[in-house]
Amino acid sequence: xxxxxxxxxxxxxxxxxxxxxxxxxxxxxxxxxxxxxxxxxxxxxxxxxxxxxxxxxxxxxxxxxxxxxxxxxxxxxxxxxxxxxxxxxxxxxxxxxxxxxxxxxxxxxxxxxxxxxxxxxxxxxxxxxxxxxxxxxxxxxxxxxxxxxxxxxxxxxxxxxxxxxxxxxxxxxxxxxxxxxxxxxxxxxxxxxxxxxxxxxxxxxxxxxxxxxxxxxxxxxxxxxxxxxxxxxxxxxxxxxxxxxxxxxxxxxxxxxxxxxxxxxxxxxxxxxxxxxxxxxxxxxxxxxxxxxxxxxxxxxxxxxxxxxxxxxxxxxxxxxxxxxxxxxxxxxxxxxxxxxxxxxxxxxxxxxxxxxxxxxxxxxxxxxxxxxxxxxxxxxxxxxxxxxxxxxxxxxxxxxxxxxxxxxxxxxxxxxxxxxxxxxxxxxxxxxxxxxxxxxxxxxxxxxxxxxxxxxxxx
Length: 460
Prior knowledge:
Blueprint: E1 4-6, H1 9-16, E2 25-32, H2 38-49, E3 57-62, E4 65-70, H3 75-78, E5 79-81, H4 89-101, E6 112-120, E7 123-131, H5 137-147, E8 148-149, H6 165-170, H7 175-183, H8 186-196, H9 204-219, E9 237-241, E10 245-246, H10 247-256, H11 261-279, E11 289-296, E12 310-317, H12 324-341, H13 359-372, E13 375-381, E14 388-389, E15 392-400, E16 409-416, E17 419-427, H14 435-438, H15 441-447
Helix pairs in contact: 7-8, 8-9, 10-11, 11-12, 11-15
Keywords: Acyltransferase, Glycerol metabolism, Transferase
Protein name: diacylglycerol O-acyltransferase
Catalytic activity: an acyl-CoA + a 1,2-diacyl-sn-glycerol = a triacyl-sn-glycerol + CoA
């Protein structure tokens, strides 16, 4: 029997702010060492994904907003099998992901779709697209974990993993943090009530007050550098990601330079961006690129893991520093300061609010966001050990959250099975060939390596 449920205000946001040039869908790809059997995949989805009701619901729009409608799901309609050219399958996979990132999901079905490449470099590849209104990327990573196993046959629970700083951004808020936010003022208390009760009837007065606070916080940030990485998206997307980088190698650099692996990775990313801008003739001296990082704003006792309950934390990358070790020292200083001052009150919750405002207000807020920032930056913590999907071992995984408004760049740092990979989803108006950036990550790490001259780190 079909059931109806109105979209919560926060999930509705992602339907409202979607534009033709920037579709609000999370995109991911898994590369598997062995062929993935379609029948086994269907069985996995039937038993593990479809019990989550959101993946059985389509969205019906009405004059008051939108409604979830539960209905039977035809999995064959949600899994498309596609073959790639045999001459360069890696390039073919990247091109397909970029094309799909710019292709809307079928509104007549639940808003998710898989593309299975059954024959990819001796194994398979699986591309997933899920609309942001179903869940944010933090929640969707947990969905993926629930679909995979620690061996081709066993199904034990995931072991606990020691979190680093960026993992903290994905962790639910503790009662102590929530109480601290509530004590900081009535406006945040009202805003949190929207986050923790997202299906309540939307209160325009309360949302308007909270939105004014968010716009004020955003307007208070200085504009980041105006490079050609800013502009108006065309809606044509390309993706790339680096080769796997051993966590042990990054840790060795961090130890030698008296810093952290996170600072090393961000310094390498900044160096790759510095080099790309320089090669394109851009003046880089003093260039600052502000990124926005998703922060989980769920409480520890939140019963529903899906939906949208996140904000954004700003972090500036010192792209304008030419010397690799000076750039690392400055990145170390910024990450240390970021760590020391982190609390959820700094998170920008603007995306959780603008979806229920008039279109003119939405456009104004999104343009302000593009003025104050250049890219979305997500750190995706994966399992420390290999995972298996329907019996096939995952050897690489990459995910991108959707950039909104006029943002044209989404950067992801994914950790999995002892390696890091850095991925970029870019609009061609900003970066026509993102591999020109991600292909330089290893060279930037080499420039920070232990054989380079040692320098004392900047004070934290």
